[in-house]
Design brief:
16% strand, 13 helices, protease, 405 residues, eight-stranded mixed beta sheet, disordered C terminus, four-stranded antiparallel beta sheet
Amino acid sequence: FRITPGNDEEVQVLKKVLSHMKVDFWQPNSVSMIHPNNTVDVHVKHSLTQSLHAHLKQRHIDYRVFISNLQKEIEKQTGHRSTRKRRSESEYDYEVYHPLQEIQSWMFEMNRTHPYLVHMFSIGKSYEGRPLYVLQLGKRSRPQKKAVWIDCGVHAREWIGPAFCQWFVKEAINSYKYDSVMRRLLNQLNFYIMPVFNVDGYHFSWTTDRFWRKTRSKNHKFHCRGVDANRNWKVKWCEEGASYHPCDDTYCGPFPESEPEVKAVAKFLRKHKKRVKAYISIHAYAQMLLYPYSYKYAAIPNFDCVESAAHNAVTALYSAYGVKYRYGPASTTLYVSSGSSIDWAYRNGIRYAFAFELRDTGYYGFLLPETLINPTCTETTRAVKAIASGLLKKCESYRDVFPYL
């Protein structure tokens, strides 16, 4: 359902109805974030649909049904596994979604076949003991190159994320020979790419619950599992936009960096913070490019530079298929959230910190069809190249030129 409450009264009614119903929030993440004239996307169990229809009609709250049979859409993406042949890397299909095992095998294969550009390593283990693999992408030349970090799959159900990370690696390697921009980027920068950040949750979204979001850590007091890996960072931890309750989708965890996945990435970035100049996290969905702050309504000190980098990225993205992205500080463009990775990266000296919310704006939501992987990844690659290219130029904001402004 996509529901649009028109005023405060309708917001209160909707909050009450949805709280009692136990629905799965797609956008925004929780009841507390429902506001007048902002759309609310929820996935509702079959047994509750009639009741929700009735409530909304009775109160004259505006709504539409976007997908009437979610199961059918899910099966389109996971049902044909048997017909997909296990192929060699040269024939790896980048236009389908892949389970964790296939993504990890692909990483080994890229590492084996492209030693001059790719180096694979692990930064730790997940809660369930899976390795946390990262690909270093870039020409092996001088050791102290500037670097860009890109992670995908922080939230398990956002499958377009890992698809993008793989696509970007393929594009970089394949176009290195003929694309002067990509060649310059890989010669002068290292990209650290983590295709699946939340490995346990991603695996679970394939085997058990397609709409799982969190990690899979156990909680001693509650039966609910998992923590929102994008509320678990050590920056304004568990304040506005995060929940203390382990059963909520935005649960911040028992303490900052409680999740081994978050801890491992934070440790790696702290270790390399002199070289890592940009942090990019790939999410879905909303068609937005966000930067700090997430936790408060305020402009970051280097706002001019980051704003202009975002503008250039969104313009580059638009040039592919005319898809429009909104951009701006996460707090005002999307919603306030605390303990997020972009705020943490920014606070730890990475002055270019971005989160992409890829396609779409809600029609398919987390079930973006495989036919849209190619265009989505193609346009996003342009945006990421624009951000990375900007790092090679010195951004001179007016404040640098006129320090007294």
